[in-house]
Amino acid sequence: MIKDIILSEIYNSCKEKTIKVSMKTEKGVFSSAPPSGTSKSSYETKTLGIEKIKKYFPSIKKKFIGREEEEVDKIIKRTGAEKIGANLSIALSIASIKAITNNESYKFFHPHAKVFPYPLGNTIGGGVHSGYISEQEFLVIPVKARTIKEAVETNLSIWKEAGKILKPFLIGRNRENAWTCKLNDLKCLEILNGIAENFGARMGIDFAANNIYNGRYYYRHPDRNFSAEEQLEFVLDLIKAYKLVYVEDPFQENDFESLAILTKKAKRLIAGDDYFATQLYRLKRGVKKKAGNAIIIKPNQTGTISKTLEAVKLAKKSNFTTIVSHRSCETVDDFISDLAVGIEAPIIKTGIYGKEREAKFKRLEKIWNKAVKPKMANLGKIFI
Q: What is the number of domains present in the chain?
């Protein structure tokens, strides 16, 4: 039973204030601090500002005091996640699962989980996360790793090596601690591709194309712009030239037609983040149109874990790969690691460096060490 809920303020990885919810029950106190995104889909469940949440929180928490932890998502559904803010509702939802499972959240989804996700890490960044290039993330995935520890160490080694090679051109690190440098996108891809191959890893790109779209797709370095058809050819050329196994949001979020063509032609993992926003009705549209074959799962886009699981269920039924993901402005809350293991997602998008990212890796390793005969997920032939 919920005895009390305490709301406090903390700072996230972007040095911005966010909320932390601490739920007190007979078993102890269970906390959650939601992240926030810099690049957002139009279809995410809306959040509220901290001051507004603080103003209404005393009346909101009355709805939960004296109720069982299992009732939290039902109460949120009746109240409306947008009315209390998706940032508050997801914190309540996650805290309740931690309370139910005594901080072993993966058991809520799968009591005997043993299949672990490969970490997909942002190595060179740009877009609205800050950086020289227009694409948001140049990513690596350690496809040959046989344990979580090996996978994490491989990505970190690639990140460090990229920093050394890019040193003469470095600007610094962006919101996800990816390197930013004064080299154009093709040169960055060439360098990262060479490093990835040396470590037995493969590459992907998150275009976050909403942020470069204004009737056409505009790139800064070099200065060029593409129609939807030209963008399609550009993405296909990059896939071929750099042996990409993963592409995310290559078109603006409402262009399902181009996404469907790319999915058919590329025969690679084509993921929707802004497209689907972890919303069931958006994923249904993607499935119907055969637009994409993977979905980014971000619980704070929906406001509750029960709604998140609706999207996961349809994705699995429709043979869409599930990719559990962090946000650019993260906290040390490690719940997404439990979620990824619990739903047997083959990939977790976590970043590579920084205490907020490291918290997720440490949690994955802890679960790995508890599991009976743990193993890495089967990524399929496209990753080999």
A: 2
